[in-house]
Amino acid sequence: MALKPNSPDGRTRSWVQIFIVFGLCCFFYILGAWQRSGFGKGDSIALEITKHGADCNIIPSLNFETHHAGEVGNVGESEKIKSFQPCPPRYVDYTPCQDQKRAMTFPRDNMIYRERHCPREEEKLHCLVPAPTGYVTPFPWPKSRDYVPYANAPYKALTVEKAIQNWIQYEGNVFRFPGGGTQFPQGADKYIDQLAAVIPITNGTVRTALDTGCGVASWGAYLWSRNVLTMSFAPRDSHEAQVQFALERGVPAVIGVLGTIKMPYPSRAFDMAHCSRCLIPWGANDGMYLKEVDRVLRPGGYWVLSGPPINWRNNYKAWQRPKEELEEEQQKIEDVAKLLCWEKKHEKGEIAIWQKRVNDESCRGREDDSQAKFCKAEEANDVWYELCLRLL
Ligand SMILES: *[C@@H]1O[C@H](CO)[C@@H](O)[C@H](O)[C@H]1NC(C)=O
C-alpha cells in the first residue's frame, strides 16, 4: 500500500478502508454467484416477481382506453367500471373459440372443426381465465428459447409422444427445448443451416418468415437467433399446448389452421414460408393452399416443404403410406408450383425449396395455359375464394 500510516489513528482508518473494500468485494462476489445460480432451477428472481405480482390488487383499476378525448379521470358516475372475477381453476386452459367439445360438433373435412368456433352469447363466460397454479414470469430471451417453467404450461404429453424427436424434455421444474422437430430431430439449427445453403437467410434477404403447422415453434425460435422474425401457427390439437409453449418461449405464434378461411396476413408480407410435416394437403382443392402461400410471399420469396411427400421413393415404407398416393401428392404440388410460376431451387433428402418469381417478365407463356385463371385487380387479395392466380 502506498499510504503508510504512522499514527494509531491513521492505522485504524486504513483498516476500516480495507474492511470496506473487502466487504464490497465479498458482496458483489456473492451477488454474482447468486444471479448465476438461477440456471435450470426456475429463476428465483422470476419467482420473486411473480410472488409480489400475485396480489393483483396493486393496480386494481387499469384502464386501457386511449383517452384521446381527454376525459381521463372523469369517467361518468353512471359508467361504473366493470370488474370480472376469476373463472374456476378448471378453466385454466380455456380458449373460448377453440373448445374441444364444440369443435367436435363441426365437420372434419377441410379442418372446419379446427377453425375458430366461438361460444354463443349465452354460453360466454364472464370471468377472467386464471393463470395455472404457480405460474411464474417466463425467462427472458434468449434463455426462454430453451427453457419454460414447468408450472406455466404443465403438460408432459409431448415429452413422451415426441421423445425421440427432441421436441421438449421435462427437467424437474422446467421444460427444456432442445430445438428438435419431427423433421429435424438433430435440432432446428442444423436444419436451418441446410436451408441456408440454398436460401440467403443471414444477409438480410430474408427478414420475415411464416411457419405453417409449427409444433412448439422451434424453427421460428432458432430463426429469431438469426434475426429472422417468424410468425408461427398450429391448430389446437391433441398435443394440448404446442402454441402455448411457443408463447411461453417468447416466439410469436397463434392457434390457427388452413381450413376454409384465408390466412389473416397481408399479401407479400413474408420472405419465406415453411412447412415441415405440417399435414396441410398442399395438392388438394385445386392448389388453393399453395395459391394462398403465393399471395403472402413477396416476389422472390421462398417456400420450403420438408417431409412427406418429398423423397417418397425412399420413405414410403417408413411413413406407412402407399407409394402411388405419395407420388400423386408430389405431382400435384409440382403442377401447382408450375402454374404459380415458382422456380424449383432445390430437392435433396426430404427438403424441397421453391422460389416465387421476381417479376411478371420472368413468367411469360403462362397466359397461354388454359388452366390459368388470373385474378381481376379487385380480387387479388382473395385468391383463396376466387381460386385465381395473382400476377405477382
Ligand atoms: C444475399 O445473398 C444472395 C445470394 O448470395 C445475393 O443474391 C444477395 O444479393 C445478397 N443480398 C445482400 C443484401 O447482400
From TrEMBL:
Gene Ontology CC terms: endosome; Golgi membrane; trans-Golgi network
InterPro entries: Put_SAM_MeTrfase, SAM-dependent_MTases_sf
EC number assigned by the record: 2.1.1.-
One annotated GO biological process: methylation
Spans through the membrane: 15-34
Entry keyword set: Glycoprotein, Golgi apparatus, Membrane, Methyltransferase, Signal-anchor, Transferase, Transmembrane, Transmembrane helix
Enzymatic class: transferase
Recorded GO MF terms: methyltransferase activity
Membrane topology: Single-pass type II membrane protein; Single-pass membrane protein
Compartments where located: Endomembrane system; Golgi apparatus membrane; Membrane
Protein origin, superkingdom: Eukaryota
Family under the similarity heading: Belongs to the methyltransferase superfamily.
Name this protein carries in UniProt: Methyltransferase
